[in-house]
Amino acid sequence: RKEVEQDPGPFNVPEGATVAFNCTYSNSASQSFFWYRQDCRKEPKLLMSVYSSGNEDGRFTAQLNRASQYISLLIRDSKLSDSATYLCVVRGTGGFKTIFGAGTRLFVKA
Amino acid sequence: NAGVTQTPKFQVLKTGQSMTLQCAQDMNHEYMSWYRQDPGMGLRLIHYSVGAGITDQGEVPNGYNVSRSTTEDFPLRLLSAAPSQTSVYFCASSYSLAGDEQYFGPGTRLTVT
User: Is A60 on the interface with B (CB under 8 A)?
Assistant: First the structure.
């Protein structure tokens, strides 16, 4: 089993749609959680950190469920510019152990 | 600030050749790391450093060496290139270990023939 697993893509949605991505992690000692965005042939960039209480940044909402070892990202009112790959990232204990999910591809169409 | 810079952007090597991928950051970050990204596998950690003079292995270290003589620079050396090392390589830095954003360089696309 992979340490971080994401929904298989691609997701194809129309502009204005709401789309949700899920991510599960296997290490219960994981400490920090993030969503990164990666555009085609570009480097990953931080979209948002994920906190236990849940957090929102404009159209984006991230949730963490430690009991179920599950992270989610909700995008409301999708824009064409949201088309990208979304990477779930988990950082563990004992140092610099950072695990990336394989990513979920999103296509937003007009 | 230039952020994290990487050179070269593209490289083609023959099997058995060696080369060094360069990475530099101007944000005074203590923590730097190298990842490779292959289709369908996500980014995998090769080596990382928690400060000048301190390096450690990540998930896939075989065939690669690193050194950290200064806070700014963290080069990755391929000792004897193999086709399995064809990948996109990203260097990243962050202010601290857990809980902080990692800043990535633009990547180096390496092909080994």
Answer: no
